[in-house]
Amino acid sequence: MRRFTVAFLVFLLAFSYVAFAVGPAFAASGEDYRVITEDGANLGLKHYRPEQTAEFNTGRQPVLFMPGALTNSNEFDVRTPDGQTCRVTLPANLPDWAKNDKYIKRDHAKLYSMAYYLYTQGYDVWLTNYRGQGREPTRSYGWWNADIDHYGIYDMKATVQKVRELTGKSPVYVGHSMGSTMAYMYLQGAYYSPGWNFKVESDPALVAERNGGSGSGAVKGLVDLDGPTVPSATGTMQMPGLAWYAMVLPIYLNLRFISRLLPEGISAPVVFIEQILWAIKDALPEPFKSLLASLYSVNPANIDASVLDYAARYAIDGMATHAMAQYADAMACGKLREYYRNGLWGRFRIFPPPLNGPENLYCYSDNMSKVSLPSLVIADATVDLTDPADIKKFYDTKTRNALDEFHVMPGTAHVDVVCGLKAPYDTFPAIGSWLRKLRAD
């Protein structure tokens, strides 16, 4: 049974953990656009404002948000859906930026919205979803062959260029989890070489343009919210053969269909389970501690239950098997590289080949020095789906920029570093402070 390793079980547990927590679509308050990628995927892009009657921050510095694996852009846009009652309780001592705020007074949930925070700071906020993710009216389509290379090469390129087209300015890119992983690829100038076999190459001209250049694909800065190169759960453990066979199939693990079965307040038992897990996790011996690591991705002491309820019902969508396989390959070999089934004979391959083999697969982990963009890198403080040491590795191996910063946010886990109780006091102001430096540069 050693073949049924930590990597495989962590994936199963992580997916079963969220399988009962998905919600329906609901009306948005922004202005919606469609973005067509080079390979024909149809992506949703939302121009953010807190309410229909609010003004857009048109003409200001644009900020483009991209969500992580399994989620959509609602993770950044916490709010009370139309027709529901806000159950978020405001803390006694609000952060300075939120005091006397009329929108937060009307909807307490907005205190935990990163998109709203940056809107209050005067930024022109844009929210997007990579293929397969999102709820109407900004759902993105075209997931069937999706791996993380596709997200970085096609989806990020198309949305960056669209925001540049609409605003006339290069956006600051904010990615959470896999949203930052795809940025590592994009900023390395990744593209598919001509042909049908999806072989990743790096173009020095694209590297120069995307890392603060002046072209249509330029990005002004990167806010990296706990973006892994190698998910933390496994080391070099191997998955069972049947799992690799399953991940060859172009399947989307759709968790949205369960939404209509869920009552409001579904997060209460989740918080209770998380409290138990967090109480015992440091006492657990290996391999059980590693086995359960993905379930520590929400710190129950750092999340409002109603915010978690919102995230569970409205921000969780699903994940494509090929993207899962690419992360699984990173866990198996200890480095992030292009999808292991790329290349001339790749589509006949079931199991990932060894590193530095004759297949010559492009290794993103070995080329982080190509990333020179000013970067704010924020890690959570928990070894869960990600490891702070892995997040720091990206920061240490990219080409240093004078504006680079690295922070570990105390008392946080992978999910709540974005929308937890500490976020309005720690994560949000850290981003705001860094963006002011970037804007002044």
CATH class annotation:
Alpha Beta
The major sheet is characterized as:
8 strands, mixed
- CATH fold name: Rossmann fold
CATH architecture: 3-Layer(aba) Sandwich
Number of strands: 12
Trace the largest sheet across and list its strands.
Answer: 1-2-4-3-5-8-11-12
Oligomeric state: single chain
Amino-to-carboxy terminus distance? 56 Å
Average pLDDT number: 89
Q: How big a fraction of the residues is strand?
A: 5-15%
For CATH, the homologous superfamily is named as: Alpha/Beta hydrolase fold, catalytic domain
Point out poorly predicted stretches: 1-25
Number of H/I helices: 14
Could you say which structural class the secondary elements and strand pairing correspond to?
alpha/beta
- Count up the domains: 1
Helical residue percent band: 25-40%
H and E order: HEEEHHEHEHEEHEHEHHHEHEHEHH
Account of the 3D structure:
The chain has 441 residues and is of the alpha/beta class. The chain has a single domain (6-440), classed as Rossmann fold (3-Layer(aba) Sandwich). Helices cover 32% and strands 12% of the residues. Strand 11 (375-380), helix 12 (388-397) and strand 12 form a beta-alpha-beta unit.
Quickly list its features.
441 residues; alpha/beta; Rossmann fold; eight-stranded mixed sheet
Question: How does the SSE layout of this entry go?
Answer:
Blueprint: H1 6-18, E1 31-36, E2 42-47, E3 62-66, H2 102-106, H3 114-120, E4 124-128, H4 148-167, E5 172-176, H5 178-187, E6 190-192, E7 200-202, H6 204-210, E8 221-225, H7 241-248, E9 252-254, H8 267-280, H9 288-291, H10 305-314, E10 318-320, H11 321-333, E11 375-380, H12 388-397, E12 405-409, H13 416-419, H14 427-440
Parallel strand pairs: 3-4, 3-5, 5-8, 8-11, 11-12
Antiparallel strand pairs: 1-2, 2-4, 6-7, 9-10
Helix pairs in contact: 4-5, 7-11
